[in-house]
Fold this protein.
Amino acid sequence: MEGKKDYNKELVKRGELLIDPSLFQEEQKQKKNPKGGRSYLYPRSLILFLMFLKFDLRLPYRQTEGVARKLLSFLGVKIPNFRALHG
C-alpha cells in the first residue's frame, strides 16, 4: 500500500506550479516613448510566464491578467495589462 501512497504524492507534485520570486526580480525599467504608448519594459521571464498561464489554462488575455495579479500580488511585481500582453 505504501507504493500507492508514494505514487499519489508524485502525481500531486507534478501538478505543482512553483514560482521562484527571483525570476521576476529583474528591474522593471521605465522607458520614455515620444508617442505615449507603453512606458514599461517587463522582464522577459514575466512575459513568458504569463503566456504560459494564458495558453496552458486557455484563458483570454483579461483573465490572464487577473490570475497573474492574484498569483503574484505577494511579490510586488507590476503586472502588464492585457493590451501589453496582446500587442
Summary: The beta strands are 29-30, 40-41.
